[in-house]
Amino acid sequence: MNKSPLNRLSDAYLSALRTHCEQGPQPALQTARGIGREAVRCGLETLDLAKIHHRALAHLLGPGAASGSREDLTARAAAFFTEAITPIEETHRDTRQANADLHQLHATLDERMVRLAAANRELQQQVAERAAVESALKASQRSAGELLNDSRVLAKQLQLSAHKILTATETERKKLSLQLNDEVVQILLGINIRILALKKVVASNHVDLAGEIAAARRLVENSANIIRRLAHEISYPHER
Question: Can you list the positions of beta strands (E) in the chain?
């Protein structure tokens, strides 16, 4: 009848331990390591091998053993057992190291997850800011279109007024110049108000566009001053 792996290991342990106790430590200790590796392959733990060791030692310390030889035998057997369990202990160290590596891996993954979550929040914030900028730019485009339309109205008004002034008498010229001044100033004022509103919308989102708006506002103010002066010169040509 075939023996189980555990029984075969027990027989091998007894044989190797007897050889160790009879012949000396060095050759048998190498055999103890081999038995320990076989115990690892069989899935045995230190306690399992300790039971095998005590059974083998009890067999060697039978009634026929002298008291002096018993002490020496026990000491030699202890050295053998210490060597035999070394592969099992090494497996335990490897397991502990693997667990430590796994713990470190989990910690690294947790840290990366935290960084990824922070990156996602930053990306969402950037997307929201981009949407706000795009909305402001769309509003500025609409306002720019309105400003362009006002400019065209102003140009047409100036053209008609200039024609009327050139064909009018001096009295009519004064009246038209005042009317021209009022109408143009009102149009420029409306453009200026729209520029101010547009500036508030895009000031925090588009620095370059805000600068262009400021320049346009200065141009409107200068235009108003020039028109006032021209209207006065037309009304009072002899004062020049």
Answer: none
